[in-house]
Amino acid sequence: xxxxxxxxDYDGTLADHGTVRTESxxxxxxxxxxxxxxxxxxxxxxxxLKRVFPQTDLFDKIVAENGALLYTPETEEERPLAPAxxxxxxxxxxxxxxxxxxxxxxxxxxxxxxxxxxxxxxxxLGLELEIIFxxxxxxxxxxxxxxxxxxxxxxxxxxxxxxxxxxxxxxxxDHALLRMCGCGAAVANALPAVKDTADFALEGARGEGxxxxxxxxxxxxxxxxxxxxxxVQIGENDAGPVVIxxxxxxxxxxxxxxxxxxxxxxxxxxxxxxxxxxxxxxPEGDYEDLEGAVTVGSxxxxxxxxxxxxLLANPEDNVVVSALxxxxxxxxxxxxxxxPDISAMRARTGRPHWLIIxxxxxxxxxxxxxxxxxxxxxxxxxxxxxxxxxxxSPKALSAxxxxxxxxxxxxxxxxxxxxxxxxxxxxxLDRRHSDEEVLFWRRSAGAPAQRIRVEKPKQVRKRHTRKxxxxxxxxxxxxxxxxxxxxxxxxxxxxxxxxxxxxGVDDETWDHHLRAGDYSKWFGERIGDPELADEAxxxxxxxxxxxxxxxxxxxxxxxRRYTAPxxxxx
Length: 570
Description:
Layout: E1 5-8, E2 15-16, E3 19-20, H1 22-33, E4 37-41, H2 46-52, E5 61-64, E6 69-72, E7 77-80, H3 87-95, E8 102-103, E9 108-111, H4 115-125, E10 129-134, E11 137-142, H5 147-158, E12 165-169, H6 175-180, E13 183-186, H7 192-197, E14 200-201, H8 206-220, E15 232-237, E16 240-244, E17 249-254, H9 260-273, E18 278-282, E19 294-296, H10 305-312, E20 319-322, H11 331-349, E21 354-357, H12 360-363, H13 370-373, E22 382-386, H14 394-398, E23 402-406, H15 410-421, E24 437-442, E25 450-454, H16 465-470, E26 479-481, E27 490-492, H17 495-504, H18 507-515, H19 518-525, H20 530-541, H21 547-562
Parallel strand pairs: 1-4, 1-12, 4-5, 12-13, 13-14, 17-22, 17-23, 18-20, 18-21, 19-20, 21-22
Antiparallel strand pairs: 2-3, 5-6, 6-7, 8-9, 9-11, 10-11, 15-16, 15-25, 23-24, 24-25, 26-27
């Protein structure tokens, strides 16, 4: 479920001349029964609303006075969102002959044609107030206070994102509301300008239109209102932008070091720009410095479910969950323990909108059954990243809707995916593509793979620094100090452990690996750092260095690249 709430205007939208149809009330009840929330956003003052509409308890929140007052029917709590109107302003309006004035907790309202006198009074007193029109009504509020600002305050209390809200209105004061929400609708009787602002106009007028809208939300959810607000551009081709949307499950694949995490970083920037909340599962420390996100966990501290969920409770917080502190074999268990809580949050709030799961073959390995991985049936809004599609859980792969295959082995990556899922190979794999292009395949019947130019990140990050410095490399990627006759078997599962062991081993063992070129080989092939490998190779070739000196220089090179402040690193 994506659209989690409906925010409706009252007069001219839900109500006709102050009265709400019985059918409209029943429709609202049906929507609540789906687990969605209801918000009423009105220009009316609260006492007046209660007088004409006794069923306020149908709503979870009521934004009254055009955004200036927040009311919770369940507790009857009233929270002003703006200061009270200046008494001298009201007095001056009366002096100017403005009659039929209504004064609320914040709002001052009258009717046309008194807008000129109202504007004069604002200027004479030098007040920071603005006029908002509503089909003949003239409402005066502090600058910046409107239905959108009031709804934002209500959603913050409810821990909901405006992207998961459908709004409906009819008049001038609904423009900001419809623009802000994930989907904006206008009833048939709405002003033409309001229909232009909305994503679409309903066939029904007033309550009948709201009933129509509720039926579409229940029947189709996200599918009934797809707009640019929910599109995330992954790249472009000659025909234009290529996008993914929240129902998508994107698999990013390709050989190691080809740019998969770089593409994921670029997508995280697009998500931030569009106010999507995302959560990154980071097994190897690749995203520790991701801009606009809070990192939980490190190479020495493991994250907890509570830490992750407390941060995600705020729709404006993005989270990187670092599993670097866990041993490789512990990571699927941690992921399986956290996923039910994440899934429950998504079912309740629609957030986080996107999950980015790096090294998906580590966190969701094919070797574990789906039940032990605690994978929910709804995995929409997910980006999975892996070198080995065939090593990912078949249930996770079955949900994939699109594949982005990077590098010269992109064809092989899609072939691996299709072999694992039983899909037929798409057309378009044989066409040559440059290193700057990616094979993108939308997994639907008959869809060909296409070449696209992918998004590039604005931020520059040094990848894998923490992973290699403090993490737990697998047995095949670790360095083993064994010596000339293999008398030892000391495993270094990261660079810091390598330095600790190197400092303690005997000179004969140290020199054995130095002269064999083992250090440069490990740095180049397993750590993936050719510059460090070159430095090590130079030391290995310098026969004049004593063991103590070569140890010192190699340790300095490692620490300079992996533990020095960012400004001092190469």
